[in-house]
Amino acid sequence: xxxxxRLARLAAVAGCSFxxxxxxxxxxxxxxxxxxxxxxxxxxxxxxxxxxxxxxFGPDVLRDxxxxxxxxxxxxxxxxxxxxxxxxxxxxxxxxxxxxxxxLKSGQVDESDLRRNLTTVGPLDALVKSGLTVEEENxxxxxxxxxxESLKVQQILLLDKAEAARVQAEASKPxxxxxxxAKKYSLDSRSKAQGGLLGEVHRGELEPELAEALFAxxxxxxxQPVESADxxxxxxxxxxxxxxxxxRPQIEERLIAARRGDFVEDLRAGAKIETVAPYRLPASISxxxxxxxxx
Length: 295
Hints:
This protein is α+β, with helices and mostly antiparallel strands. The protein has 2 domains: 3-132 and 252-269, no CATH class; 150-242, Chitinase A, domain 3. It has 12 helices and 6 strands. Strands 4-3-6-5 form a 4-stranded antiparallel beta sheet, with helices on both faces. A two-stranded antiparallel ribbon has the order 1-2. A hairpin with a 2-residue loop joins strand 5 (226-228) and strand 6. Helix 1 packs across helix 5, helix 6 (121-129) packs across helix 12 and helix 7 packs across helix 12 (244-269).
């Protein structure tokens, strides 16, 4: 699960702070007499609800709040500022996720909760990124090149070799409209209506002979006819992401995602963390999701 989605769940569970007792939603003169619900006239006291929420969610929510404090403390120490524009960008990305949309619609969480919790993610990523080295990024690229390198591709699929040669020659002419030719000639019903557009393909997803033919092309170039089990393909590369420098942002994003947990664990190991009864932390306060094995 992504860090931002976890923060959404944290906001949903702790938005009213029942579980940990911080700023209770039930602000009354005598909370001992507050009622959460009535069942056939029988009252369920609000304190009973609070105790049950504390038992079920308290340790995990407290763990996440501890991690938030550790991250923001370290960010202040190193002079890392919260990027307001970055927070808004992440917020919009979160709001496009069905699970988050459901929480917003149900009222479990609102945008202000999400925005507040997302102020932790930017500094965390900046802190982790500061520890990355060029050597690590280069090694990651070499190891994962097949899954990182990608092309945006159009194709015309044919069955007859003579026709394929003729269409390829036409598609290779200066100013040729490959999309129009795909709509006219291609036998691939899935991509024909979109001008032969296949979308983004990664090197590792392709058969070796197709990968060799495609990744040898520059954007705008048209391939020679390439035979496969499906027929004879004529490809055109629309755009490419193949160079290390071009892929570096994606490499950094993946390295950061893989190291967030270790970074927070290192902060925790060097911190003094005390809890006050009846609040408690899980036996292990790693950043794994509740319900997962914690190492």
